[in-house]
Amino acid sequence: MHYKGYEAVIEFDEHANIFNGEVVNLRDVITFQGSSAAQLKQAFAESIKDYQAFCAERGEQPEKPYSGQFVVRTEPILHKAISSAARRAGVSLNKWVVTTLERSIR
């Protein structure tokens, strides 16, 4: 489920007969729930708006969904090996890593 760049995963609690959602593309924790798809969508939107308002009250910028940048630390031997693989493929190290990660999640 998506709303204004935020992504949530939904689970169904069969004992409580309710859907629980959690925003997954932030470090902050934002949860919501609803008993129907319409309620779930509304609760998701309201939770994001509440989160943004809470941040504004505190004078903080709300965390944005992931930027697309992260640091990977590895052993030098692995760094050398993937750099060589990228060079052999004729692409940048960044492009090689992105392509490899994309393949791994499909």
How are the SSEs ordered, and which strands pair?
Blueprint: E1 2-3, E2 6-13, E3 18-23, E4 31-34, H1 37-57, H2 76-89, H3 93-105
Antiparallel strand pairs: 1-2, 2-3, 3-4
Q: What are the salient characteristics of this protein?
A:
four-stranded antiparallel beta sheet; 2 domains; alpha+beta; Uncharacterised_HicB; Antitoxin HicB; TTHA1013/TTHA0281-like; Arc_rbn_hlx_hlx
What does this structure look like?
This protein has 106 residues and is α+β, with helices and mostly antiparallel strands. It has 2 domains: 2-57, Double Stranded RNA Binding Domain (2-Layer Sandwich), CATH 3.30.160; 76-105. Helix content is 45%, strand content 19%. It contains 3 helices and 4 strands. Strands 1-2-3-4 form a 4-stranded antiparallel beta sheet, with helices on one face. A hairpin with a 7-residue loop joins β3 and β4. α2 (76-89) crosses α3. The longest helix has 21 residues, at 37-57. It is elongated. The two termini are 19 Å apart. The mean pLDDT is 93.
Using the CA coordinates, give the radius of gyration.
19 Å
Please, how many domains? 2
The sequence of SSEs as H and E is EEEEHHH
Q: Tell me, what's the shape?
A: elongated
Main beta sheet: 4 strands, antiparallel
Q: Could you name the CATH class of the largest domain?
A: Alpha Beta
Instruction: Enumerate the strands of the largest sheet in spatial order, edge to edge or round the barrel.
Output: 1-2-3-4
- What CATH calls the topology of the largest domain is Double Stranded RNA Binding Domain
**Secondary structural class:** alpha+beta
Mean pLDDT: 93
C-alpha end-to-end distance:
19 Å
Helix content range? 40-55%
Per DSSP E runs of 2 or more residues, the count of β-strands stands at: 4
Low-pLDDT runs: none
Under the CATH scheme, the architecture of the largest domain is 2-Layer Sandwich
Protein name: Antitoxin HicB
InterPro entries: Arc_rbn_hlx_hlx, Ribbon_hlx_hlx, TTHA1013/TTHA0281-like, Uncharacterised_HicB
Pfam families: HicB
